[in-house]
């Protein structure tokens, strides 16, 4: 949580925002009026989030801090490593993951945005937490706790792969501690239409405090209803998050007219005797005794509080965005676009000139192919495309035709390589030792990626002498 206090004017603005129906973004007068998230209609039960898995993420963030100067402040090596950890988990699970460079942040660094590739793109429910901490310590409750709760919820959603009635987008913000800069940059980067697609933003900042309170942002709003319903079912009697008003990443969304809510367990404010009577803990003491201190480690997190927050997030996701029933039947068809390379370069991306009609190497069909390397100089060339595999099919087959031509004379030593990856996992590696006349069909069962959006990547590496050409043509990914 950002460490500052509210001015009287800001406190009044926040209090007003809590009681007024959301309106169009003040920065975009022509934007459509925002609507609150509709009442839940879903009947499927939410999964139980294993708190041990959330704690494992906390441990990883603490290790990252220990290996990088003791903290994970935005722009630091510890923050960069934290982004890499979350990104790797999400990409492996099948999320569409992007990093947004925050050019207006105090410490130039990246927001991480992950979207589950199912549900209508104009009906988005968004869940966010800041990933950065202060330089005083590893920042485990503030805010590896919120970051880890969202990460594990995202992974469970990917594992369950339910039918989606809305699109779920997760965000891990940078530079929150310097003034909510990462989330503000993101909101400002959205068009009026894109803002209108976000039907609710939910923020999670410090959700494992040892002397916890159970607080909900804008607790009486329709947006907060699923969060409150879950905690009410546990008899927790949650309260409004007064301490956190205007101090975390929900504030830029709220200012843009997007409905907001979220959980918090409290920071440096002190627990009242009334709160201690209903929640336990110590009256007169801070909710988080290690707020913005070096002792904000894994020992500064309550497993019980963490678990209740994690399960409440899952309940909200399932109530807001998950439909009843199972994923629909297989739609089948082709997932790769422009697999014969005859229609220009899109949707492929990679090294310039890889897609070519040069007569130096023949295409298998048509005039174009992807020709990686073949220069006889030290060089790495890539070619990639994001592909979405439909759910519910019985067969998923990736096929491409590969011709390898080499001037290397050895029959035992590898000099040049082509690596083929899907979703970050290596499917195969070929080299100058695999050279052969003509094209050879290469086929792979990729059923493990059903229902996911992943990246197919060809990477060719060549050393400083004697060329090896890796020529790819007629790439298909068929589901049936």
TrEMBL record:
The keyword Magnesium does not apply. GO terms for molecular function: aminopeptidase activity; metal ion binding; metalloexopeptidase activity. Gene3D superfamilies: Galactose-binding domain-like, Zn peptidases. Residues 336-360 are annotated as: Disordered. Coiled coil: none annotated. Residues 337-360 have a biased composition (Polar residues). The keyword Repeat does not apply. GO terms for biological process: proteolysis. This is Aminopeptidase S. It comes from Micromonospora sagamiensis. The lineage of its organism: Bacteria, Bacillati, Actinomycetota, Actinomycetes, Micromonosporales.
């Amino acid at each position: 949580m950002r460490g500052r206090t509210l001015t009287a004017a800001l406190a009044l603005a926040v209090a007003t925002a809590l009681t007024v129906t959301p309106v169009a973004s003040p920065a975009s007068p022509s934007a459509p009026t925002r609507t609150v998230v509709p009442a839940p209609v879903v009947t499927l039960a939410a999964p139980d989030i294993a708190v041990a898995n959330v704690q494992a993420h906390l441990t990883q963030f603490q290790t990252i801090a220990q290996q990088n100067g003791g903290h994970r402040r935005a722009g630091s090596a510890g923050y960069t490593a934290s982004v890499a950890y979350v990104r790797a988990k999400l990409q492996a699970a099948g999320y569409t993951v992007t990093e947004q460079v925050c050019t207006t942040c105090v410490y130039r660094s990246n927001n991480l945005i992950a979207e589950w590739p199912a549900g209508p793109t104009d009906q988005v429910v968004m869940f966010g937490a800041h990933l950065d901490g202060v330089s005083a310590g590893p920042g485990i409750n503030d805010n590896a706790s919120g970051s880890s709760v969202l990460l594990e919820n995202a992974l469970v959603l990917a594992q369950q792969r339910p039918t989606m009635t809305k699109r779920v987008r997760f965000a891990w913000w940078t530079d929150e501690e310097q003034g909510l800069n990462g989330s503000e940059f993101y909101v400002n980067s959205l068009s009026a239409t894109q803002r209108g697609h976000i039907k609710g933003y939910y923020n999670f900042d410090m959700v494992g405090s040892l002397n916890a309170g159970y607080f909900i942002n804008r607790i009486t709003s329709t947006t907060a209803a699923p969060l409150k319903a879950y905690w009410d079912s546990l008899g927790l009697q949650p309260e409004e998050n007064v301490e956190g008003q205007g101090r975390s990443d929900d504030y830029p969304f709220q200012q843009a007219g997007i409905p907001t809510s979220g959980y918090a367990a409290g920071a440096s404010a002190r627990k009242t005797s009334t709160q201690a009577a209903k929640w336990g803990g110590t009256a007169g003491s801070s909710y988080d005794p290690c707020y913005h201190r070096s002792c904000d480690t894994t020992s500064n997190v309550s497993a019980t509080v963490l678990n209740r927050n994690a399960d409440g997030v899952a309940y909200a996701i399932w109530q807001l965005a998950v439909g009843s029933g199972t994923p629909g039947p297989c739609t089948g068809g082709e997932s790769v676009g422009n697999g014969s390379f005859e229609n220009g370069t899109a949707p492929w991306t990679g090294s310039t000139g890889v897609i070519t009609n040069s007569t130096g190497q023949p295409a298998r069909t048509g005039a174009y192919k992807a020709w990686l390397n073949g220069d006889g100089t030290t060089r790495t060339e890539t070619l990639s495309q994001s592909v979405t595999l439909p759910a519910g099919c019985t067969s998923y087959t990736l096929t491409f035709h590969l011709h390898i031509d080499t001037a290397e004379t050895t029959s035992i030593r590898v000099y040049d390589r082509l690596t083929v990856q899907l979703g970050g996992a290596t499917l195969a590696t070929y080299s100058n030792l695999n050279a052969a006349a003509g094209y050879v069909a290469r086929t792979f069962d990729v059923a493990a990626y059903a229902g996911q959006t992943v990246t197919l990547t060809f990477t060719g590496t060549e050393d400083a002498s004697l060329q090896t050409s890796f020529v790819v043509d007629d790439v298909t990914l068929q589901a049936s």
